[in-house]
Write a structure and sequence with these properties.
- With 329 residues, this protein is α/β, with parallel strands linked by helices.
- The chain folds into 2 domains: 215 residues, NAD(P)-binding Rossmann-like Domain (Rossmann fold, 3-Layer(aba) Sandwich), CATH 3.40.50; 88 residues, UDP-galactose 4-epimerase, domain 1.
- It is built from 10 helices and 13 strands.
- The strands form 4 sheets. Strands 3-2-1-4-5-6-11 form a 7-stranded parallel sheet, sandwiched between helices. It has a two-stranded parallel ribbon with strand order 7-10. It has a two-stranded parallel ribbon with strand order 8-13.
- Helix 1 crosses helix 7, helix 3 packs parallel to helix 5 and helix 8 packs across helix 10.
- The chain is globular.
- The two termini are 21 Å apart.
């Protein structure tokens, strides 16, 4: 039995779908569905054994410890409704600590989500070096990214001090993922669904104007990764229990937002004109103009599969999911 926190979310539900596709076993998710359509992300899963509210997860794990194969911790808080960093700390640090302690005590693998946001403005590059000195240099620009880095720093200190850790722990620094089941994320989903909604209705989708002279409007760059590639990487780690540490999960190739825009319009048979809007005030000072995963460490660990090119991934997303009457995986 696999346990996935955030299992009804974007990443978690795609991991659940892939576990089911490969017939790896039953899955229990820990999540809150609230009043959104998030439930549809898991409604097709016959291997879903149970849905546990997060606050009840540790007691559930204690009752079913012998059945747990691994814990995949993908639940996270990006920002609190009240804007309180304390709530983000409680969700992303304290709860992760609880799961880390449980997996250590019960000798279970723990894979958990981190973010490319730990690299801040990218001044020190995007290398997933988990040495103390490398982690100390990083300067995230958001509370969410800082909490993820905080957890990584703490675990590395445990290892340096020879304190107990799970038999396998992997911090997965996700870059810009896209694909089905991200629709509930509103402001945190990829740009592809909103671009598609404009494209199919013959409208222009405005990209952000650049405030950095090194980048033209629309040429801001991200490492965009198709969600099925991400799921494959995650499950590869579960197949290789000897691999542990901090790892980037991206393609290793940055593309521009203009590239994404053109790919979406091409998938619906259109050629877009470029339109731009000012960068929102809440993104000023924290906006990343360039991210690109250094995947040298992942390749050295033994992961050899190639990643889906942007144009191919976007076309699959549009034709197989976004244009479908049922866009849920």
């Amino acid at each position: 039995m696999f346990v996935i926190t955030g299992g009804a979310g974007f990443i978690g539900s795609n991991i659940l779908a892939e576990i089911e596709k490969r017939q790896l076993g039953e899955v229990v998710i820990a999540d809150r569905l609230f009043d959104t359509a998030k439930w549809r992300n898991v409604s097709k899963r016959y291997s879903l054994r149970d849905i546990i509210f997060t606050e009840n997860l540790i007691p559930y794990l204690n009752r079913h410890a012998n059945e747990v194969e691994a814990v995949l911790h993908f639940g996270a808080m990006y920002n609190s409704e009240a804007g309180h960093v304390d709530a983000i700390v409680h969700s992303n640090i304290h709860f992760t600590d609880d799961l880390f302690s449980w997996c250590t005590e019960h000798e279970k693998p723990l894979l958990f989500a981190s973010t490319a946001g730990v690299y801040g403005d990218g001044a020190f590059g995007f290398k997933d070096d988990d040495s103390r000195d490398a982690l100390a240099r990083l300067n995230p620009l958001t509370p969410m990214a800082w909490t993820k880095l905080f957890v990584e720093r703490r675990i590395i200190e445990y290892e340096i001090q020879n304190k107990p850790v799970p038999p396998q722990w992997v911090s997965l620094r996700f870059f810009n993922l896209y694909g089905p089941n991200e629709y509930h994320k509103t402001g945190h989903q990829s740009v592809i669904p909103p671009i598609y909604n404009c494209a199919k209705n013959g409208k222009l989708f405005p990209l952000f104007r650049s405030e950095n002279p090194a980048y033209k409007n629309g040429d801001q760059m991200r490492d965009f990764m198709w969600i099925e590639d991400c799921a494959d990487v995650v499950l590869w780690f579960l197949e290789h229990r000897d691999v542990t540490g901090v790892f980037n999960v991206g393609t290793g190739l940055a593309r521009t937002y203009a590239d994404v825009l053109r790919a979406v319009y091409a998938a619906v048979g259109e050629k877009p004109e470029m339109d731009f809007i000012d960068l929102p005030s809440d993104l000023k000072g924290i906006y990343q103009y360039f991210t690109q995963a250094d995947v040298t460490k992942l390749r050295a660990a033994g992961y050899t599969k190639s990643f889906t090119p942007l144009e191919e991934g976007v076309e699959r997303y549009v034709k197989d999911w976004l244009s479908s009457s049922d866009p849920y995986r």
